[in-house]
Amino acid sequence: MPLTLERVDTRAAILDAADRLLARYGYQRMTMDDLAREAGIGRRTIYLHFKSKEEVALATIDRTIDLLLAELRQVARSEGSPADRVHRMLMARILFLFDRAQNMAHTLDDVYMALRPQYKHHRERYIQGEVEIFAEVLREGQELGVLEVDDPHAVGNALVVATSSLTPFSLSVRELGSRDEVERKIRRIADLLVHGLVR
C-alpha cells in the first residue's frame, strides 16, 4: 500500500512518541496504550502502521540510521579531497550517533537486550548502507590516484568496523564518556585510518 502524506505524518508522530516514551520508561515498560496516548491517536491506528511494540522500537532505530546515512551522504558530496571527506565522515558518524543517544542514555541497552536477534538483522543493513557511502568516496580517491585502496567496499567496511567501538551500540553512553572525550578518540582514530589510506 503506497504511503500517503497523512500516513507518513501519522507514522512519524508514532515514532516521535516512541522516542519520548523509550527515553522516559525504557522498552520493557512502554506499552502500546502508552504509545497511543502519547501520540494522541487510537491504539488501532498504531496497528495500521506497526504490528507490534518490537516493530515500533526497531523503526525508531531505523529512522536514526536513515538520518545518519543522509548526514554521511551530505559530507560525501561536499567540497574537499577524498581523504578529507573520509575523515569528516568518520567523525560525523560517531558524533551523530553519540548526540542522538544522549536523550536515551538508559534505554538503548534496554532496547538492544530485548530485541537482540531482530536488531542483528537490521544492523547488517545499517552497516552496508554506511559502507556503500564510504566506498563511493574511496572509489573516487582510488580513481584520482590519491588514496591507496585495493577494494573500496572492503576498505569502507573496515573503516566502519574500526570505529564502531565508539558508538552507543557498542558501549552505553555512560561508558563512552563525555562528548569531548569521544571527539578526541574518534579524531585520533580517523587520523590514523585516513593516514593509512593516503598515497
* Rg over alpha carbons: 19 Å
Calculate the mean pLDDT score and round it.
Answer: 88
By DSSP (H or I, 4+ residues per run), the number of helices equals 10
Number of strands: 0
Major beta-sheet overview:
none
| Coarse morphology | elongated
In sequence order, what are the helices and strands, one letter per element? HHHHHHHHHH
Classified by CATH, the class of the largest domain is Mainly Alpha
Number of domains: 2
- The CATH superfamily of the largest domain bears the name Tetracycline Repressor, domain 2
> Which fold name fills CATH's third level, the topology of the largest domain?
Tetracycline Repressor, domain 2
N-to-C CA distance: 50 Å
Oligomerization category of the chains in this entry: single chain
Structural class: mainly alpha
Q: Give the helix proportion (percent range).
A: over 70%
What portion of the residues fall into strands of 2 or more residues? under 5%
CATH architecture field of the largest domain: Orthogonal Bundle
Q: Low-confidence spans: pLDDT under 50, at least 5 residues?
A: none
Provide a quick synopsis of the model.
The chain has 199 residues and is an all-alpha fold.
Describe the structure.
This protein is mainly alpha-helical and 199 residues long. The protein folds into two domains: 1-50, Arc Repressor Mutant, subunit A; 53-197, Tetracycline Repressor, domain 2, CATH 1.10.357. Helices cover 76% and strands 0% of the residues. It has ten helices and no strands. It has helices at residues 5-25, 32-39, 43-49, 53-76, 82-101, 108-114, 116-144, 152-163, 173-176, 179-197. It is elongated.
